[in-house]
Please model this.
Amino acid sequence: MDRDRILLTPGPLTTTLRTKLAMLKDWGSWDADFNALTASVRHRLLDIVHGHETHVVVPLQGSGTFSVEAAVATVVPRDGHVLVLDNGAYCKRAARLTEMMGRRASVMAFGEEEPVSAAALDARLKAVGSITHVILIHCETGTGVENPLAEVATVCEKHGKGLIVDAMSSFGALPIDARSTRFDALIAASGKCLEGVPGMGFVFIRRAILDGCAGNSQSLAMDLHDQHVYMGKTGQWRFTPPTHVVAALSEAITQFVEEGGQPARLARYADNCRVLIDGMAAIGFKPFLRPEVQAPVIVTFHAPAHPAYDFKTFYEGAKARGFMLYPGKLTQVETFRVGCIGSLGRHEMRQAVEAVADTLREMGIPGGEPHVGA
Ligand SMILES: *Cc1c(COP(=O)(O)O)cnc(C)c1O
Model:
């Protein structure tokens, strides 16, 4: 089948033809035209968080994790102490990279099926004075749970602690307002809810802390302060920029604005999520999360209990019907995940459910009902 399949994954995701076509041009990295493109992307990213007064945005080459690592390296002094609020796989990754860069990291563990608790954070910050920074994953993509960004930011501000937010899978879809929510750094990437292609991340850094970040980074390539200073002087990226990715992101942001910005994107994803969960429920599948804590980004479903089920066959069946699913990321229970983000709507979600139903029939499985107790 010589056509693109629909990616029901949390990045890379399905992009529009316009976004793909924007990559059919070569750019000189030192050229004024490309510098103007970078400046325009940065400006419009700040628009999205209402951050012009309070923050700068610094782009960085690489996948999203590169930018998380860079944000921690740049914002946290080498003798800093980071507390990671942990309710899933991406939280654990943030703790690991913090530790690997030689910063002291403590983990505050929560259940994977619940949001982290701002009240519990408040108590911990009262008890442990050495903590300098808190890391929060806004939407924990490992399960799809939405964490309480505004509440956590309020607690951090009250205690005078820095807040680093991994908003990779929420930025552009869930509301984030820098005027009312204080964060030191907030990280997202090109190939998630803005519906660009993967290849670069970007970090919003609070102006008030920016100068103090000079010299924090133990890595040359990951130093966002240096990237920012150089970009300010020259308009250029320090090292070879992902030119085609920047061009695609620019085009994707134009479409984001045309669609109606963050509220419109949230409405479309919320509709996708509802259509998906309702359709899957009708054929027996049960989501891992309670609806109140589910972000409309990615849905974790329990695997069917039927003995004929195995993910590989299930995945191949859905793929043959044009839809790419995503494996689960939980250790305790068998699950799989279905993304609601990307350039798709309710019709594609209905077709995806139909593809799943058809695949189950082929596997001889009457329905998606999970094990009792799941
Ligand atoms: C996608 C994602 C990342 C970055 O993952 P990469 O594979 O490095 O792009 C980080 N955090 C969250 C919450 C994500 O969803």
User: Anything to note?
Assistant: The radius of gyration is 21 Å. Residues 10-11, 63-65, 68, 90, 137, 141, 166, 168-169, 189 surround pyridoxal-5'-phosphate (CB under 6 Å). The chain has two domains: 6-10+260-363, 17-258.
